[in-house]
């Protein structure tokens, strides 16, 4: 495949930039004067493209680690061997915080501080929005790493330390929540002077402060639900505080979703690249569930197999299929457990395609990941490059609804949970339909209101009080197809989905030995030559002493919030 040729270069480049705990601070340019000619809003755009333009993270962290672990995909021949023990090149988000996101957003504030005094107040809202985004990404990194530098980070070129201390995860989450809360409060105050808007430099909301207030409150809920698992009182206090906000400050529809929208080439072009999903199969558990329940998202998530009637007729003519064979179910998933994928009968039936001699084409039994869902610029079978929009969500309205449903189930009761659950399912179906249409997904058929109504009435989908949490989590899991990292966090936080849930995920085994799903990022042990060795070692020693954190270099242990 074409992306293989560039992989060595990318591995070297990203390995230098984000070797996680290696040179993440000292390699930042220490000269602040080099930035004086950059408009502050440029650094906001640079940060957002830094967050969402990480094709290396897509290739390794999502496609080949988290998605197989969480049974969102398999490789061509199904999951193989002890695949959950493979952490190579995993967790690319760490280095980006210090070289491409957090530093850029800190620069924005410093650049404003260099402007004429009368100009600086006109950037107040821009600074608050930048703080929300920086808090989000710091949370995203700490979420799987635990302790990270934050309170003293990003300041090296402005006279701060190049050996920042590490903030523990409970300290950091509390600090980030405080920063987001303060930013919301500031954005709600009518500015004393006209504000410079981020406008087109903001690919999420075009600088709209009201939208950012809604996004920030949704982020506080997501963080609080992590905190709740480790410190129920602290998490509940944040949730109560957020839900006391006026309805106008909360997400109310898909138009409020926090989503980066780029052009087709942002996530790969016709030549392939690291966004390319060509080698990724649709997973059998999810496909079977969606097919049985007539889930309208199935063609947004996956492709039909190659058993079209035209191909069947060619195989009949070559006596490779019985006469009269008709086209049947064309969404067929790949086996997620290695012990199933390696069975001789399974290999012969599902992983051994028939060949049409007349045109030398393989007829593949299994579905693949819908290519343009992740790589919008992907060329179709005729060689035409995709021209739709690239959607990269941070927090969808559906996620917000499912969070509200879970909170309601634990507090106000099943009636409110049902309302939010149904709103979440409906908004997820509608949002993926929007993606299907605007990303111009291959062979996609738009969803109709009647299909949504019928889906909500299906057994297992229609709300059941006795299975409410299972249903909420299972639908959240499906909604996170475009955000498998959040599906992974959902599993760690709730234990859903599992082998007995509404969306059942089979146990993963290899040679009859259960495979354990990883729970955090592995950590590279520090070298004594590292300029921040003392702070790093102290932080790592403290995490290693935490119950359940485990071997630093493994991904099997748990960070602070991920309590058993």
Topology diagram in text:
Blueprint: H1 4-17, H2 40-52, H3 55-69, H4 93-113, H5 124-145, H6 169-187, H7 209-230, H8 232-243, E1 258-262, H9 284-292, H10 298-301, H11 309-317, H12 338-341, H13 344-350, E2 354-356, E3 361-363, H14 371-374, E4 390-395, H15 397-410, H16 414-438, H17 449-456, H18 468-479, H19 484-494, E5 509-510, E6 513-514, H20 533-544
Antiparallel strand pairs: 1-4, 2-3, 5-6
Helix pairs in contact: 2-4, 2-5, 4-5, 5-6, 5-7, 6-7, 7-8, 15-16, 15-18, 16-18, 18-19
Structure description:
It is a single chain. The chain has 564 residues and is mainly alpha-helical. The protein contains 20 helices and six strands. The strands form three sheets. A two-stranded antiparallel sheet has the order 1-4. A hairpin with a 4-residue loop joins strand 2 and strand 3. Helix 2 packs parallel to helix 5, helix 5 packs parallel to helix 7 and helix 18 packs antiparallel against helix 19. It starts with a helix and ends in a 20-residue tail after the last helix.
């Amino acid at each position: 495949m074409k992306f293989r040729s560039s992989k060595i270069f990318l591995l070297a480049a990203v390995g230098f930039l984000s070797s996680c705990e290696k040179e993440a601070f000292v390699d930042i340019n220490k000269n602040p004067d080099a930035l004086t000619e950059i408009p502050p809003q440029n650094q906001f755009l640079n940060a957002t493209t830094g967050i969402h333009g990480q094709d290396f993270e897509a290739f390794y962290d999502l496609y080949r680690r988290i998605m197989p672990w969480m049974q969102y995909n398999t490789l061509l021949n199904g999951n193989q061997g002890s695949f959950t023990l493979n952490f190579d090149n995993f967790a690319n988000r760490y280095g980006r915080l210090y070289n491409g996101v957090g530093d850029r957003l800190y620069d924005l504030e410093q650049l404003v501080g260099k402007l004429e005094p009368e100009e600086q107040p006109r950037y107040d809202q821009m600074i608050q929005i930048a703080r929300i985004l920086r808090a989000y990404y710091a949370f995203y990194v700490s979420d799987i790493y635990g302790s990270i530098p934050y309170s003293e980070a990003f300041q090296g070129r402005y006279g701060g330390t190049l050996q920042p201390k590490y903030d523990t995860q409970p300290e950091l989450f509390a600090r980030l929540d405080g920063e987001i809360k303060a930013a919301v409060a500031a954005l709600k105050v009518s500015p004393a002077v006209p504000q410079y808007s981020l406008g087109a430099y903001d690919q999420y909301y075009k600088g709209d402060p009201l939208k950012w207030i809604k996004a920030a409150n949704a982020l506080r809920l997501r963080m609080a639900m992590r905190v709740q698992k480790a410190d129920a009182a602290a998490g509940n206090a944040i949730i109560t505080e957020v839900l006391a906000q006026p309805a106008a400050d909360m997400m109310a529809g898909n138009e409020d979703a926090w989503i980066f929208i780029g052009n087709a080439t942002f996530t790969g072009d016709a030549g392939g690249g690291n966004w390319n999903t060509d080698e990724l199969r649709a997973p059998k558990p999810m496909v079977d569930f969606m097919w049985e329940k007539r889930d309208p998202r199935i063609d947004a998530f996956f492709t039909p197999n190659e058993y079209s009637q035209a191909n069947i007729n060619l195989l009949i003519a070559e006596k490779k299929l019985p006469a009269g064979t008709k086209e049947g179910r064309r969404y067929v998933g790949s086996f997620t457990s290695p012990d199933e994928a390696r069975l001789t009968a399974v290999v012969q039936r599902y992983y051994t395609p028939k060949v049409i001699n007349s045109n030398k084409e393989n007829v593949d039994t299994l579905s693949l990941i819908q290519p343009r869902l992740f790589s919008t610029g992907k060329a179709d079978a005729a060689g035409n490059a995709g021209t739709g929009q690239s959607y990269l969500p941070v927090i969808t309205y559906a996620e917000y609804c499912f969070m509200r449903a879970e909170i309601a189930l634990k507090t106000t009761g099943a009636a409110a949970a049902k309302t939010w659950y149904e709103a979440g399912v409906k908004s997820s179906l509608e949002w993926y339909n929007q993606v299907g249409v605007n990303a111009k997904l291959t062979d996609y058929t738009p969803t109709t209101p009647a299909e949504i109504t019928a889906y909500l009435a299906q057994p297992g989908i229609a709300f059941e009080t006795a299975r409410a949490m299972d249903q909420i989590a299972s639908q959240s899991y499906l909604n996170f197809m475009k955000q498998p990292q959040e599906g992974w966090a959902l599993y760690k936080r709730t234990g859903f989905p599992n082998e007995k849930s509404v969306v059942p995920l089979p146990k993963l085994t290899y040679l009859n030995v259960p495979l354990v799903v990883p729970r955090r990022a592995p950590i590279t042990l520090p070298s004594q030559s590292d300029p921040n060795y003392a702070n790093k070692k102290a932080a790592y020693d403290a995490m290693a002493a935490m119950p359940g954190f485990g071997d630093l270099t493994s991904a099997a242990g748990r960070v602070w919030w991920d309590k058993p």
